[in-house]
């Protein structure tokens, strides 16, 4: 098994979360946070801030990103585990705009579009929205069926 390190950023206002509708690539046609692969010579936090800027137009200083989760995703038949580092922030600059990859939209926390998101999101968003930190593991069959799952609350990483 090898690992690929990815980032995922969920920007929050008091009662809203910014999601992006993915127009291409992995997770196409799903609402998701903003993120992608960590490049050589950048920290995971720097990658998270860069991907957020590239995909939504919002600028966040890496120091203002709070890590809330590390989630491992395994897909049956695929030897690569996706290690997704999840961050949140309320301190951002700019206004979200549509990019080639994502269409951003604010959602009320009571009205998150779980039916059009990755199947794991509805299982861990309640932890995120209530301010918990956690580690997770999900085994997927295809892109829709979860065969195994684990969520453990942690005090830090
Ligand atoms: N099960 C899952 N639940 C979730 O909420 N986010 C997931 C997820 N599996 C992957 N992600 C996120 C992590 C990352 O932010 C994004 C995948 O980013 P990538 O940049 O690798 O995708 P792309 O295929 O767009 O790559 P590029 O073509 O290189 O931009 O999806």
Molecular structure report:
With 157 residues, the chain is mainly beta. Helices cover 14% and strands 42% of the residues. It is globular and about 40 Å long. The structure holds the ligand Nc1[nH]c(=O)nc2c1ncn2[C@H]1C[C@H](O)[C@@H](COP(=O)(O)OP(=O)(O)OP(=O)(O)O)O1.
SSE string: EEEHEEEHEE
Class by helix and strand content? mainly beta
Question: What's the tally of helices?
Answer: 2
Helix content: 10-25%
Shape: globular
N-to-C CA distance: 22 Å
The residue ranges in which pLDDT falls below 50 over 5 or more consecutive positions are: none
* Radius of gyration using CA atoms only: 15 Å
Number of strands: 8
| Mean pLDDT over all positions | 97
Report the β-strand fraction as a percent range. Answer: 35-45%
Protein name: Oxidized purine nucleoside triphosphate hydrolase
Subcellular location: Nucleus
Subunit structure: Monomer.
Pfam family, one: NUDIX
Concise structural overview:
By secondary structure, this protein is mainly beta. It is 14% helix and 42% strand. It is built from 2 helices and 8 strands.
Write the layout of secondary structure elements.
Elements: E1 2-12, E2 16-22, E3 31-32, H1 44-56, E4 66-75, E5 80-89, E6 102-108, H2 121-129, E7 133-141, E8 145-154
Parallel strand pairs: 1-5, 4-7
Antiparallel strand pairs: 1-2, 2-3, 2-6, 4-5, 7-8
The structure holds the ligand Nc1[nH]c(=O)nc2c1ncn2[C@H]1C[C@H](O)[C@@H](COP(=O)(O)OP(=O)(O)OP(=O)(O)O)O1.
């Amino acid at each position: 098994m090898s690992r690929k390190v990815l980032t995922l950023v969920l920007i929050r206002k008091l009662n809203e979360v910014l999601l992006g509708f993915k127009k291409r690539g992995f997770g196409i046609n799903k609402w998701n946070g903003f993120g992608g692969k960590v490049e050589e010579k950048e920290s995971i936090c720097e990658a998270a801030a860069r991907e957020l800027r590239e995909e939504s137009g919002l600028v966040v200083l890496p120091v203002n990103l709070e890590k809330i989760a590390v989630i491992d995703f395994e897909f049956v038949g695929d030897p690569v585990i996706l290690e997704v580092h999840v961050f949140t922030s309320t301190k951002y600059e700019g206004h979200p705009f549509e990019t080639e990859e994502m269409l951003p939209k604010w959602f009320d926390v009571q009205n998150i579009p779980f039916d059009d998101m990755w199947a794991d999101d509805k299982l861990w968003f309640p932890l995120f929205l209530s301010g918990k930190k956690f580690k997770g593991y999900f085994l997927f069959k295809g892109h829709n069926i979860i065969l195994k799952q684990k969520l453990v609350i942690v005090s830090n990483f």
